Amino acid sequence: MENGLYKNQKGLNIMSDSVNIMMKRKLDSIDKVSLAEGCVIKQLEVADAEALSNLYNAAFGFDFQTPEWVIKEMLDNPQVKAVYGIEHDGKLVATAAIHIVPEYGETPELHWVATHPDYRGEGLGKAIVLYTLHEMKRMGFKDVLLITQPERIPAIKLYLSIGFTPEVGNDEDK
Predict the structure, then answer these.
(1) Cα 125 from chain centroid (whole Å)
(2) Which part of the chain is the N-acetyltransferase domain (predicted)?
(3) CATH number where 125 lies
(4) Which of 37, 84, 113, 136 could staple 141 via S-S, CB 3.0–4.6 A?
(5) Beta-strand (E) ranges in the chain?
(6) C-alpha 29: how far from its chain's center?
(7) Alpha carbons 130 and 116: distance in angstroms, whole number
(8) For residues 112 and 152, is the Cβ–Cβ distance under 8 A?
(9) Which helix (H) or strand (E) holds 102?
(10) How far is CA 167 from CA 26, 49, 95, in A?
């Protein structure tokens, strides 16, 4: 990071404190999860740290998510209730996590949703999000929120298509 900016692998500067979009939805009715042949969903563990690190870096274009970072911030973090992944023929290709943020009260955050660039457009992002929402509901949560960035247009379209709505805090947010 330099001057508040991260440089991704494509050479684009991304602001570390850029504007975020908060979206919410109820967990009362969730579509069924549909997976392509050769795909399985599992809860990730410390043994998956290197694969998860590689996925994050490929998906987001950064190179700072080391296996050690993944263990500390995701897989061994008491605020992260679970991290799920989709494997295709043994390769981790999509992921999402359930993050508990005390400031959000009883509402969990859908966190660190990522799909490997080589597997985008195949419905894996939708599948891992829906699976994670089902798990949240099974755990007794009533609603969920997520935070994303305005430049993540495909992700925003996905979230809107499965029932998330943007939270507008004031006139500036409209």
Answers:
(1) 9
(2) 39-174
(3) 3.40.630.30
(4) 136
(5) 5-7, 13-15, 21-26, 39-43, 80-88, 91-99, 109-115, 143-148, 165-166
(6) 20
(7) 17
(8) no
(9) none
(10) 13, 33, 24
The two three-digit tokens of residue 73, written as one number = 């911030």
Q: Tens digit of pLDDT for each residue in 12-46? A: 434 445 689 999 999 999 999 999 899 999 999 99
**Spatial separation of the C-alpha atoms in residues 12 and 19, rounded to whole Å:** 16
In a domain, 42, yes or no: yes
Tell me which residue range forms the domain holding 87: 18-165
Predicted TM-score (pTM) of the model is 0.86
Residue type present at position 118: D
- CA dist 57 → 29, 37, 83, 163, 164 (Å): 33, 25, 16, 28, 26
